[in-house]
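User: Good morning. I'm curious how NAP would be positioned relative to this chain. Could you predict the structure with it bound?
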Amino acid sequence: MDRWEGKVAVVTGASSGIGKSIATELVERGMIVVGLARRMELVQDLSNSLTGRKGKLFAVKADVGKEDDVAEAFDWVRKNLGGVHVLVNNAGIGTYSLLSNMDREEYKRVQACLNTNVMGVVMCSNEAIKLMREKGIVDGHIININSVLGHFISRRLGIHFYNATKHAVTVLTEGLRRELVEAKSKIRVTSISPGFVLTNIMDGIEVPNRNEIMANSPILRTDDVTNSVIHSLAAPADVQIAEIIVRPVGEEA
Ligand SMILES: NC(=O)c1ccc[n+]([C@@H]2O[C@H](COP(=O)([O-])OP(=O)(O)OC[C@H]3O[C@@H](n4cnc5c(N)ncnc54)[C@H](OP(=O)(O)O)[C@@H]3O)[C@@H](O)[C@H]2O)c1
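Assistant: Good morning! Here's the predicted structure, ligand included:
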Protein backbone atom coordinates (compact mmCIF):
# COMPACT_ATOMS: atom_id res chain seq x y z
CA MET A 1 0.00 0.00 0.00
CA ASP A 2 2.97 2.36 0.46
CA ARG A 3 2.84 3.58 -3.13
CA TRP A 4 -0.64 5.04 -2.54
CA GLU A 5 0.45 7.25 0.38
CA GLY A 6 -0.32 10.90 -0.37
CA LYS A 7 -2.31 9.90 -3.47
CA VAL A 8 -5.97 10.88 -4.01
CA ALA A 9 -8.89 8.45 -3.70
CA VAL A 10 -12.55 9.27 -4.37
CA VAL A 11 -14.94 7.04 -2.41
CA THR A 12 -18.64 7.36 -3.27
CA GLY A 13 -21.17 6.75 -0.50
CA ALA A 14 -18.69 7.52 2.28
CA SER A 15 -21.36 8.63 4.75
CA SER A 16 -22.25 5.16 6.07
CA GLY A 17 -21.69 1.42 5.93
CA ILE A 18 -19.07 -0.04 3.62
CA GLY A 19 -18.03 3.31 2.11
CA LYS A 20 -17.43 4.82 5.54
CA SER A 21 -15.23 1.88 6.46
CA ILE A 22 -13.26 2.09 3.18
CA ALA A 23 -12.77 5.87 3.47
CA THR A 24 -11.56 5.49 7.07
CA GLU A 25 -9.05 2.78 6.22
CA LEU A 26 -7.65 4.67 3.21
CA VAL A 27 -7.11 7.71 5.45
CA GLU A 28 -5.40 5.47 8.04
CA ARG A 29 -3.11 4.27 5.21
CA GLY A 30 -2.14 7.85 4.33
CA MET A 31 -4.34 8.56 1.31
CA ILE A 32 -6.06 11.88 0.61
CA VAL A 33 -9.69 10.76 0.40
CA VAL A 34 -12.66 12.61 -1.08
CA GLY A 35 -15.87 11.17 0.31
CA LEU A 36 -18.95 11.80 -1.82
CA ALA A 37 -22.48 11.48 -0.45
CA ARG A 38 -25.79 13.28 -0.40
CA ARG A 39 -25.50 13.50 3.41
CA MET A 40 -22.21 15.39 3.23
CA GLU A 41 -22.47 16.40 6.90
CA LEU A 42 -21.95 12.76 7.93
CA VAL A 43 -18.77 12.61 5.85
CA GLN A 44 -17.67 15.89 7.47
CA ASP A 45 -18.28 14.34 10.94
CA LEU A 46 -16.16 11.36 9.92
CA SER A 47 -13.46 13.70 8.63
CA ASN A 48 -13.41 15.54 11.97
CA SER A 49 -13.07 12.24 13.83
CA LEU A 50 -10.04 11.36 11.66
CA THR A 51 -8.10 14.55 12.44
CA GLY A 52 -4.45 13.79 13.12
CA ARG A 53 -4.38 10.50 11.18
CA LYS A 54 -1.85 9.77 8.44
CA GLY A 55 -4.13 10.90 5.59
CA LYS A 56 -7.07 13.27 5.25
CA LEU A 57 -10.74 13.07 4.35
CA PHE A 58 -12.58 15.80 2.42
CA ALA A 59 -16.39 15.80 2.29
CA VAL A 60 -18.05 16.72 -1.01
CA LYS A 61 -21.80 16.72 -1.52
CA ALA A 62 -22.98 14.79 -4.57
CA ASP A 63 -25.79 12.58 -5.74
CA VAL A 64 -23.90 10.17 -8.01
CA GLY A 65 -27.04 9.56 -10.04
CA LYS A 66 -27.04 13.21 -11.16
CA GLU A 67 -24.81 14.21 -14.06
CA ASP A 68 -24.23 17.79 -12.83
CA ASP A 69 -23.39 16.68 -9.27
CA VAL A 70 -20.83 14.18 -10.57
CA ALA A 71 -19.22 16.72 -12.92
CA GLU A 72 -19.05 19.32 -10.11
CA ALA A 73 -17.58 16.83 -7.63
CA PHE A 74 -14.75 15.86 -9.99
CA ASP A 75 -14.19 19.55 -10.84
CA TRP A 76 -13.76 20.13 -7.10
CA VAL A 77 -11.13 17.36 -7.05
CA ARG A 78 -9.41 18.84 -10.14
CA LYS A 79 -9.26 22.35 -8.64
CA ASN A 80 -8.39 21.44 -5.05
CA LEU A 81 -6.31 18.27 -5.27
CA GLY A 82 -5.11 18.08 -8.87
CA GLY A 83 -5.91 14.55 -9.92
CA VAL A 84 -7.42 11.26 -8.81
CA HIS A 85 -5.52 7.98 -8.50
CA VAL A 86 -8.19 5.67 -7.06
CA LEU A 87 -11.97 5.62 -7.44
CA VAL A 88 -14.13 3.37 -5.27
CA ASN A 89 -17.65 3.22 -6.71
CA ASN A 90 -19.45 2.19 -3.55
CA ALA A 91 -22.65 4.31 -3.42
CA GLY A 92 -25.66 2.10 -3.84
CA ILE A 93 -29.24 1.69 -2.76
CA GLY A 94 -31.45 -1.34 -2.33
CA THR A 95 -35.05 -1.66 -3.35
CA TYR A 96 -37.83 -4.14 -2.64
CA SER A 97 -40.19 -4.17 -5.61
CA LEU A 98 -42.30 -6.85 -7.24
CA LEU A 99 -41.68 -6.63 -10.98
CA SER A 100 -45.30 -7.56 -11.79
CA ASN A 101 -46.85 -5.06 -9.43
CA MET A 102 -45.27 -1.62 -9.69
CA ASP A 103 -47.03 1.72 -9.59
CA ARG A 104 -45.69 5.17 -10.44
CA GLU A 105 -44.19 5.63 -6.97
CA GLU A 106 -42.36 2.33 -7.38
CA TYR A 107 -41.07 3.38 -10.81
CA LYS A 108 -39.51 6.40 -9.10
CA ARG A 109 -37.85 4.22 -6.45
CA VAL A 110 -36.37 1.78 -8.97
CA GLN A 111 -35.30 4.68 -11.21
CA ALA A 112 -33.31 6.09 -8.27
CA CYS A 113 -31.77 2.64 -7.74
CA LEU A 114 -30.83 2.44 -11.44
CA ASN A 115 -29.41 5.99 -11.45
CA THR A 116 -27.28 5.37 -8.36
CA ASN A 117 -26.18 1.75 -8.79
CA VAL A 118 -25.58 1.85 -12.55
CA MET A 119 -25.36 5.41 -13.91
CA GLY A 120 -23.41 6.49 -10.82
CA VAL A 121 -20.76 3.88 -11.61
CA VAL A 122 -20.70 4.83 -15.30
CA MET A 123 -20.47 8.60 -14.73
CA CYS A 124 -17.97 8.54 -11.84
CA SER A 125 -15.73 6.10 -13.74
CA ASN A 126 -15.76 8.32 -16.82
CA GLU A 127 -14.99 11.49 -14.87
CA ALA A 128 -12.19 9.71 -12.98
CA ILE A 129 -10.59 8.29 -16.14
CA LYS A 130 -10.84 11.70 -17.85
CA LEU A 131 -9.05 13.32 -14.89
CA MET A 132 -6.42 10.55 -14.69
CA ARG A 133 -5.65 11.03 -18.41
CA GLU A 134 -5.61 14.82 -18.10
CA LYS A 135 -3.09 14.65 -15.23
CA GLY A 136 -0.95 11.88 -16.73
CA ILE A 137 -1.87 9.38 -14.02
CA VAL A 138 -1.20 6.11 -15.79
CA ASP A 139 -1.52 3.61 -12.94
CA GLY A 140 -4.94 4.50 -11.52
CA HIS A 141 -7.36 1.98 -10.04
CA ILE A 142 -11.16 1.79 -10.21
CA ILE A 143 -12.90 -0.47 -7.71
CA ASN A 144 -16.61 -1.23 -8.01
CA ILE A 145 -18.46 -2.46 -4.92
CA ASN A 146 -20.68 -4.97 -6.64
CA SER A 147 -22.58 -7.82 -4.89
CA VAL A 148 -22.92 -11.58 -5.03
CA LEU A 149 -26.22 -10.61 -6.66
CA GLY A 150 -24.18 -9.46 -9.62
CA HIS A 151 -23.40 -13.10 -10.29
CA PHE A 152 -26.61 -15.10 -9.90
CA ILE A 153 -30.38 -14.62 -9.98
CA SER A 154 -31.83 -14.45 -6.48
CA ARG A 155 -34.43 -16.94 -5.27
CA ARG A 156 -35.86 -14.21 -3.05
CA LEU A 157 -38.74 -12.29 -4.62
CA GLY A 158 -38.71 -8.49 -4.57
CA ILE A 159 -34.96 -8.19 -4.99
CA HIS A 160 -34.68 -8.72 -8.76
CA PHE A 161 -34.48 -5.06 -9.76
CA TYR A 162 -31.50 -4.54 -7.44
CA ASN A 163 -30.22 -7.92 -8.66
CA ALA A 164 -30.34 -6.57 -12.26
CA THR A 165 -28.42 -3.39 -11.36
CA LYS A 166 -25.62 -5.50 -9.87
CA HIS A 167 -25.52 -7.75 -12.97
CA ALA A 168 -25.03 -4.50 -14.89
CA VAL A 169 -22.06 -3.66 -12.63
CA THR A 170 -20.48 -7.06 -13.41
CA VAL A 171 -20.77 -6.46 -17.15
CA LEU A 172 -19.68 -2.80 -16.96
CA THR A 173 -16.59 -3.68 -14.89
CA GLU A 174 -15.39 -6.29 -17.37
CA GLY A 175 -16.36 -4.11 -20.35
CA LEU A 176 -14.31 -1.22 -18.95
CA ARG A 177 -11.36 -3.54 -18.28
CA ARG A 178 -11.44 -4.69 -21.92
CA GLU A 179 -11.60 -1.11 -23.25
CA LEU A 180 -8.63 -0.13 -21.10
CA VAL A 181 -6.65 -3.14 -22.34
CA GLU A 182 -7.48 -2.14 -25.92
CA ALA A 183 -6.24 1.39 -25.17
CA LYS A 184 -3.02 -0.09 -23.68
CA SER A 185 -3.87 1.66 -20.39
CA LYS A 186 -2.41 0.46 -17.09
CA ILE A 187 -5.47 1.61 -15.13
CA ARG A 188 -6.77 -1.40 -13.16
CA VAL A 189 -10.43 -2.30 -12.66
CA THR A 190 -11.71 -4.49 -9.83
CA SER A 191 -15.16 -5.73 -8.87
CA ILE A 192 -15.66 -6.68 -5.22
CA SER A 193 -18.83 -8.67 -4.63
CA PRO A 194 -19.90 -9.06 -1.01
CA GLY A 195 -22.62 -11.29 0.33
CA PHE A 196 -24.81 -9.94 3.13
CA VAL A 197 -23.08 -7.13 5.09
CA LEU A 198 -24.28 -5.51 8.31
CA THR A 199 -25.11 -1.92 7.22
CA ASN A 200 -28.11 0.39 6.97
CA ILE A 201 -28.89 -0.56 3.36
CA MET A 202 -32.28 -2.04 4.24
CA ASP A 203 -33.37 0.98 6.33
CA GLY A 204 -36.51 2.52 4.93
CA ILE A 205 -37.20 -0.44 2.66
CA GLU A 206 -40.24 -2.53 3.50
CA VAL A 207 -38.95 -6.07 3.23
CA PRO A 208 -41.30 -8.82 4.47
CA ASN A 209 -39.70 -10.98 7.23
CA ARG A 210 -36.90 -8.42 7.54
CA ASN A 211 -36.21 -9.06 11.23
CA GLU A 212 -36.23 -12.81 10.68
CA ILE A 213 -33.79 -12.47 7.74
CA MET A 214 -31.48 -10.22 9.80
CA ALA A 215 -31.57 -12.56 12.80
CA ASN A 216 -30.98 -15.80 10.90
CA SER A 217 -28.52 -14.86 8.16
CA PRO A 218 -24.76 -15.14 8.49
CA ILE A 219 -23.44 -11.65 7.95
CA LEU A 220 -20.15 -9.88 7.12
CA ARG A 221 -18.79 -6.78 8.85
CA THR A 222 -17.97 -3.73 6.73
CA ASP A 223 -14.25 -4.27 7.51
CA ASP A 224 -14.38 -7.62 5.72
CA VAL A 225 -15.16 -5.77 2.49
CA THR A 226 -12.59 -3.05 3.20
CA ASN A 227 -9.93 -5.75 3.59
CA SER A 228 -10.67 -6.87 0.02
CA VAL A 229 -10.30 -3.28 -1.20
CA ILE A 230 -6.90 -3.03 0.49
CA HIS A 231 -5.87 -6.41 -0.95
CA SER A 232 -6.76 -5.24 -4.49
CA LEU A 233 -4.96 -1.91 -4.13
CA ALA A 234 -1.88 -3.47 -2.54
CA ALA A 235 -1.29 -5.93 -5.40
CA PRO A 236 1.79 -5.10 -7.54
CA ALA A 237 1.01 -2.52 -10.25
CA ASP A 238 1.12 -5.19 -12.97
CA VAL A 239 -1.32 -7.49 -11.14
CA GLN A 240 -5.03 -6.93 -11.55
CA ILE A 241 -7.43 -8.48 -9.05
CA ALA A 242 -10.41 -8.59 -11.40
CA GLU A 243 -13.05 -10.03 -9.08
CA ILE A 244 -13.36 -10.87 -5.40
CA ILE A 245 -16.43 -12.62 -4.02
CA VAL A 246 -16.52 -12.38 -0.23
CA ARG A 247 -19.34 -14.09 1.66
CA PRO A 248 -20.04 -14.95 5.27
CA VAL A 249 -19.48 -18.63 6.00
CA GLY A 250 -22.77 -20.50 5.73
CA GLU A 251 -24.52 -17.98 3.45
CA GLU A 252 -27.21 -19.66 1.37
CA ALA A 253 -27.51 -18.93 -2.37
N1 LIG B 1 -25.09 -4.37 2.82
C1 LIG B 1 -25.05 -5.42 2.04
O1 LIG B 1 -25.53 -6.53 2.40
C2 LIG B 1 -24.39 -5.33 0.69
C3 LIG B 1 -24.09 -6.52 0.03
C4 LIG B 1 -23.48 -6.45 -1.23
C5 LIG B 1 -23.20 -5.23 -1.80
N2 LIG B 1 -23.53 -4.09 -1.14
C6 LIG B 1 -23.21 -2.82 -1.81
O2 LIG B 1 -22.37 -2.06 -0.98
C7 LIG B 1 -22.52 -0.67 -1.31
C8 LIG B 1 -22.64 0.14 -0.03
O3 LIG B 1 -23.84 -0.20 0.63
P1 LIG B 1 -23.99 -0.32 2.21
O4 LIG B 1 -24.44 -1.70 2.50
O5 LIG B 1 -22.78 0.20 2.87
O6 LIG B 1 -25.26 0.62 2.44
P2 LIG B 1 -25.48 1.94 3.29
O7 LIG B 1 -24.98 1.80 4.67
O8 LIG B 1 -26.93 2.26 3.09
O9 LIG B 1 -24.57 3.01 2.53
C9 LIG B 1 -24.88 3.44 1.24
C10 LIG B 1 -24.02 4.65 0.92
O10 LIG B 1 -24.29 5.04 -0.43
C11 LIG B 1 -24.60 6.43 -0.42
N3 LIG B 1 -25.54 6.75 -1.49
C12 LIG B 1 -26.72 6.16 -1.77
N4 LIG B 1 -27.28 6.74 -2.83
C13 LIG B 1 -26.43 7.71 -3.24
C14 LIG B 1 -26.45 8.67 -4.28
N5 LIG B 1 -27.46 8.74 -5.17
N6 LIG B 1 -25.40 9.52 -4.39
C15 LIG B 1 -24.37 9.47 -3.52
N7 LIG B 1 -24.29 8.59 -2.51
C16 LIG B 1 -25.32 7.73 -2.38
C17 LIG B 1 -25.19 6.73 0.96
O11 LIG B 1 -24.95 8.08 1.30
P3 LIG B 1 -26.07 9.23 1.32
O12 LIG B 1 -27.36 8.59 1.69
O13 LIG B 1 -25.54 10.18 2.35
O14 LIG B 1 -26.05 9.80 -0.05
C18 LIG B 1 -24.32 5.83 1.83
O15 LIG B 1 -23.11 6.47 2.15
C19 LIG B 1 -23.72 -0.58 -2.25
O16 LIG B 1 -23.27 -0.46 -3.58
C20 LIG B 1 -24.40 -1.91 -2.04
O17 LIG B 1 -25.15 -2.30 -3.17
C21 LIG B 1 -24.10 -4.10 0.10
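Residues 2-246 form a domain with the Rossmann fold fold (CATH 3.40.50.720). The beta strands are 8-12, 32-37, 56-61, 86-89, 141-145, 188-194, 243-246.
Let me know if you'd like a different ligand tried.
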